[in-house]
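Before relying on records like the one below, remember that each one covers exactly one chain. Contacts with other chains, cofactors or solvent are not represented anywhere in the record.
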Amino acid sequence: MNAWEQVEALRFPGREFDPSTGVARFHYALGDLVLTETVDFGPPSVAHPALDRVLDLLYVAASTSYYKIAAPPRVELDGVALAEGALPWVRALYHDGLGEFAYRNKLEYVLELPIEAARFAEPADWRHVPSGPPLAAVGGGKDSIVTMEALQRAGLDPVLFAVNPNAIIRSVMAVSPQPVREVRRRLDPRMRELNEAGAYNGHIPVTAINSLIAVAASLMHGLGPVVMSNESSASVPNLSWLGRDINHQWSKGLPAEVHLREALLSHAGIQDAYFSLLRGLSELHIAALFAKFTAYDEVVTSCNAAFKLTGASDRWCGHCPKCRFVFLALAPFTGRERLLHIFGADVFSDLTQLPGYRELMGLTAHKPFECVGEIEESLVALRLLTEQPDWRDTPIVKALAAEVPSLPADAEVDAAFRGDAPNVVPPRYLAALTALGSPRSGS
């Protein structure tokens, strides 16, 4: 029998942090199997009283990577004491953040997994509002580029940030004159062999983990709030299962953002430590803003598969749901010649892509388990393309226009660019975004 089989609970035997090196180690126990994650922040510039408590939250967030190995029937928070106000975040992290994992592995009990706290910490008795330069997370795609440009142009002097950046992310950050901070996250090296031996695998709320790494890094260097680039459609689920919404992007959505902000306030005493600048915008709105910035055309990528490709010029696989959606979202605003230059291929000329586009349009199945926009956004993009000589006669656009029962009306098109979806962006930062001008003009 394998070491992880028939384990009754995930336990938290303890963690360490070396303030001289900035290296944190988080230990997790599945029965007799103890696994250790390492996060190397680099030497801190300042000591902050809230840091230890942010590392508590990171300890819990990163545990989802280790829980999924065995998917035991309980999580016992024995080695970490959280303020009671952080518990709703923990429960959501597991019940909703592991929703896709539960769905794909048919583990119904994970949706109601018992989270047992052995003890509670007192709420933080201080209040810290980060006020230095913002720490802007960069993923290499159009979204974080819009955030970078908005913050730079507003004179907010962002520090660019990434966890385990590859050459693609570094090339995007290199276009900007802003300083960069990187953190290395290393999973226990035995994870691969456990997966190969038959342990469970699947999607976890990785954005929650990276967000807390960013908050900790911000505290270590006296920086301001962590600014993410998650859009409104990230909150929309892919499907319903057993009466529960299953959302591939849960940890990028507004409910997750609100839960984490409340946990940071209750347990670590940090207010407005973390928000998504683009939360009020649709994917199409963001795509239209990105089209204003040509300096990133040679480096931008929003393709997750590209991060696994070996060629230095491989930025788009051209065949995944995200490539299809990003091509669709950008096409109405970039013009054909520019978009083909960005992608290196004309996705709309390839009829083998039609089944994937049918999914994006809601004609078949459910929205793909990927970071793609809402069905309504895809339909609005299609309507815009049918009105443009550059695109309306391409094989994919013609085929979809013939199959979609009805295209969105003018009011639905306008709604996609209002930019007023629910968000928690502070006014100063919202003004920086608004200063980029209208999404559908060159202003």
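Residues 309-313 have pLDDT under 50 and may be disordered.
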